[in-house]
Specification:
binds zinc ion; disordered N terminus; 2 domains; 6 helices; four-stranded mixed β-sheet
């Protein structure tokens, strides 16, 4: 048995040549195909035309977010939480619902996946964020753009905003407003 991978935009490829694990022949026939309950893994029974042995392959759609390449060349994992925190910071005290924000992030992620690349620049993500913020809330858009355009990394946005907007520094006092403590959840 082996797990074969295919990229999201190619989907399942039932007729793709699969080498027989016993003799190496690439001429195999699919004798049975079934999906798991979620429909995201396809199990195929195959018969090798060369040696007549049977084996099973599992194919699943590989929906991995691309790695992020920062301006300095460093790579990092995509983290939805970081993106959410940055956008929440830009949207601080703005009349935008969590549902609308989550939907915006879903759209950004869908675009990142649609690119079909294993790596993507932080500048590209920053542009996608700005497009979404522009639709959600003009003030948040300007906040994000004014800081982001100068610094170019979404990852660093949170700390940078705290530098340029002193009132957003975490304060652990009884004067904390509910949304202030919400921000604290995402700090760091
Ligand atoms: Zn064979």
């Amino acid at each position: 048995m082996r797990v074969s991978r295919c990229t999201a935009n190619k989907g399942f490829l039932p007729n793709r040549a699969v080498k027989c694990p016993f003799c190496g022949d690439s001429n195999t026939q699919v004798t049975d195909t079934r999906e798991n309950d979620d429909g995201d893994i396809v199990r195929r029974r195959r018969r090798c035309v060369g040696c007549d042995k049977r084996f099973t392959t599992y194919e699943r759609i590989d929906l991995k977010m691309p790695h992020i390449v920062k301006r300095n060349g460093n790579r990092s994992e995509y983290e939805r939480g970081k993106l959410l925190a940055s956008m929440q910071l830009a949207l601080r005290k703005r009349p935008v619902t969590t549902v609308a924000l989550e939907a915006a992030i879903d759209r950004i992620e869908a675009r990142l996946l649609a690119v079909g690349e294993t790596e993507i620049t932080s500048a590209h993500i920053g542009d996608l964020v700005m497009k979404e913020l522009k639709k959600l809330d003009k003030v948040a858009y300007i906040r994000f753009a004014s800081v982001y355009r100068n610094f170019a990394d979404v990852d660093d946005f949170s700390s940078l905003v705290r530098e340029v907007q002193p009132q957003s520094r975490p304060r652990r006092r009884e004067t904390d407003t509910p949304d202030q403590s919400e921000h604290d959840l995402f700090d760091g």
